[in-house]
Amino acid sequence: MKWLMKLKDVTKCYGEITALDGASLEIMENEIFTVLGPNGSGKTTMLKIMASIDEPTSGEVFFDGNIINNSNRSQARKKSTMVFQKTTIFNTTVYKNIAYGLKLRGYSKKETEEKVKEALSLVKLAGYEKRLAKKLSGGEQQRVSLARALALNTKLLLLDEPTANLDPKNVSIIEETISRVNRDFNTTVVMATHNLFQAETLTNRVALLLGGKMAQVGAPQEILRGPSINLASFARLENVFSGNSKILREGTSVIAVDDGVEIEAALKKSGKVTVFVRPEDIIVSKKTMSSSARNVFEGKIVEVSDFGPVVKLRVDAGKEFVVQITKRSFVEMRLNVGSTVFLTFKASSVHLI
After folding, report:
1. DSSP state, 94?
2. Cα–Cα distance between 284 and 300 in angstroms, integer?
3. How far, CA to CA in Å, does 297 sit from each of 88, 121, 178, 262, 341?
4. What is d(CA 47, CA 44) in angstroms, rounded to the nearest whole number?
5. Please, which of 146, 190, 281, 299 could form a disulfide with 349 given CB 3.0 to 4.6 Å?
6. Do 9 and 93 have their domain in common?
7. 100 and 53 in a common domain
8. Residues 148, 152: Cα–Cα separation, whole Å
9. What does the alpha-carbon distance between residue 196 and residue 202 come to, in Å, rounded to a whole number?
10. In this structure, are 80 and 219 located in the same domain?
């Protein structure tokens, strides 16, 4: 696979502050790539350099086969577009907001109308052309901003925290749009986020950026399935338990956590440990299952959070567990707050921090 964007030892300083420190990275054609990191890690700075909006203090940036310099920077900028977290919406109609970039690039009226219509359809705002953009909800305004970028049909789409602070409905629509433009139009997408769920479910590869430095690059499963100390230092991990671990004859360990709860883990570790279980690794059922899984807990649902295609449940099983199931499973099992459920997960699903 050929690379589209490459950073080589890129450093960016703002006065005495180093926002990026020797970052090297290759973005392949037609992939969705996530830059994962906490606030202040340099994610936005990296995207702005990729978009040719900002220049590195040192290092080299390559795009579409060429090194970016002062002579070709404006041309490179036309091949990419960036959507910022704090979106800019003009005080006019949705149509004029989306048509703005097309007008600057000299598209005809007919071409502009076609591209605006297609972009609105992609973000599920068909028929909104005459609506005042400022009157829309925050999530709808973010979708208008995304549509404005999509209308330009560039090779590279850069998204800075595209779903931050949005409701589940708008998050789901934006995630679906990102997947579709990558699949149907072969658009290369680079997305900055601190959302672990998006990093795993939406993307082909993930870069972990910490303190302006590239800590890890790899497939989502490599980085997120067995989190490093770097990842655990900022990620909001769920189902985190601490307790005393005792090694069993079978080669596993049993961890005694508070309130009489014991968790069996596929690791040989004794003494004080902290572990976590990913919400999606826990199976939810109405009855006990016939399974080789070592961990089975009975509990009651105390909270339900609907995230569109998936539902998150908080279950009190002596200790509180967060589990994630599909919307379909949730409906088929007729679950709700107060429902009694069984939680089942393998010893290999218990990860050491």
Report:
1. H
2. 11
3. 48, 45, 37, 10, 8
4. 5
5. 281
6. yes
7. yes
8. 7
9. 10
10. yes
Q: Are residues 269 and 167 in the same domain?
A: no
- Alpha-carbon distance of 313 to 298, in angstroms, equals 14
User: Do 155 and 221 lie in a common domain?
Assistant: yes
pLDDT(253) > 60: yes
The residue to which tokens 């589940």 are assigned: 168
pLDDT at 225: 62
156 and 252 part of one domain: no
As a whole number, mean pLDDT of residues 261-269 equals 91
Q: Which amino acid is at 247?
A: I
Predicted local confidence at residue 228, as pLDDT: 59
| Residue 80 structure tokens | 């990419």
C-alpha of 211 from chain center: 19
Same domain, 139 and 202: yes
Task: Give the domain-ending residue among 178, 197, 232.
Answer: 232
One DSSP character per residue, 238-306 reads SSEEEEEEEE-TTS-EEEE-GGG-EEEESS---EEEEEEE-GGGSEEESS------SEEEEEEEEEEEE
Determine the pLDDT at residue 259. Answer: 74
Q: What CATH number is attached to the domain comprising 44?
A: 3.40.50.300
Using the predicted structure, report yes or no on whether residue 227 has a pLDDT greater than 60: no
Mean pLDDT over each residue of the chain, to the nearest integer: 91
Looking at residue 322, which CATH number applies to its domain?
A: 2.40.50.100
Of 205, 124, 209, the residue nearest 169 (C-alpha): 124
Same domain, 262 and 314: yes
Cβ contacts of residue 24 below 8 Å, gap of 6+?
7, 8, 9, 10, 214
- Domain span at 318: 240-352
Report the pLDDT value the prediction gives residue 91, as an integer from 0 to 100.
96
Q: What is the pLDDT of residues 318-334, one digit of tens each?
A: 999 999 998 889 999 99
Say how far apart CA 257 and CA 243 lie, in whole Å.
4
Please tell me the total count of domains within the chain: 2
Domain edge (last residue) among 181, 197, 232: 232
pTM, 2 dp: 0.70
Structure confidence at residue 211 (pLDDT): 84
